[in-house]
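Bumping with the actual sequence this time:
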Amino acid sequence: MNATPLLTWLRWIVFPPADLFLPVFDIPTQVQRDHLSAEAVCLHKYATPYEVGVKCNVRMPNPISILGRLLLEVSWENATGDQLLCLTVEVELKKPWWDGTASNGFSLLIYTVPADLPVNMPLLCRLKLTDTEGALSSYQPCSFYARSIWMP
């Protein structure tokens, strides 16, 4: 490990950037006949792991009662339209999920900057979530989000 990432890591333990955990995007989903979709321009300011997930806009009681399988497709493009990364994952909604005071939701996918995507480059993120078992209708309305999940 070279000194620069180590010094950054040590500095972030004591003085994490104020915006480190702010969402890269938090956008309402567009409801289609058989899926949810959205597009967002995002900028990853920090070299950390990130997660993409779904946030319920109305707080849902925990533990969640409706479980099911989802198919998530996420792609990121640069300003010239070149696709930098495309990920497709099947996710099972299960307990536990994250639970906040005002909202709650579930993480669907984890990626890493700069291993998967560049730092400080505006990117267009396209998301499509197919609800294969009808579970998501119980959690509407909802939003897609991406945020850093860096932990020391």
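The tokens above came from a reply further down the thread. The chain has a mean pLDDT of 87.
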